[in-house]
């Protein structure tokens, strides 16, 4: 129980705004976040991951 409360306090300290990090990385790498090709690539990656996740979660034939 003590370990759970100790790690909970640490997690709250480590919270960071994801948008801030994304903007900093984009500036460092000189990425145009409004590029349509970037959005197309991100959508493809997301679709692939979602398909992988569904295939992983669906029980295979013969499994119970």
TrEMBL record:
The organism's taxonomy opens as: Eukaryota, Metazoa, Ecdysozoa, Arthropoda, Hexapoda
A single Pfam family, by name? IQ
Where is the segment annotated Disordered? 44-64
Highest taxon of source = Eukaryota
Q: Please give the family membership noted in the entry.
A: Belongs to the PCP4 family.
Coiled coil (UniProt feature):
none
InterPro entries in the cross-refs: Calmodulin_Regulator_PCP4-like, IQ_motif_EF-hand-BS
* Family annotation (PROSITE patterns): IQ
Quote the SMART domains the UniProt record gives.
Answer: IQ
Protein name in UniProt: Uncharacterized protein
């Amino acid at each position: 129980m003590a370990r759970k409360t100790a790690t909970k306090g640490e997690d709250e300290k480590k919270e960071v705004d994801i948008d801030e990090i994304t903007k900093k990385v984009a500036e460092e790498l000189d990425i145009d976040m409004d590029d349509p090709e970037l959005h197309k690539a991100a959508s493809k990656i997301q679709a692939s991951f979602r398909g992988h996740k569904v295939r992983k979660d669906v029980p295979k034939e013969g499994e119970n």
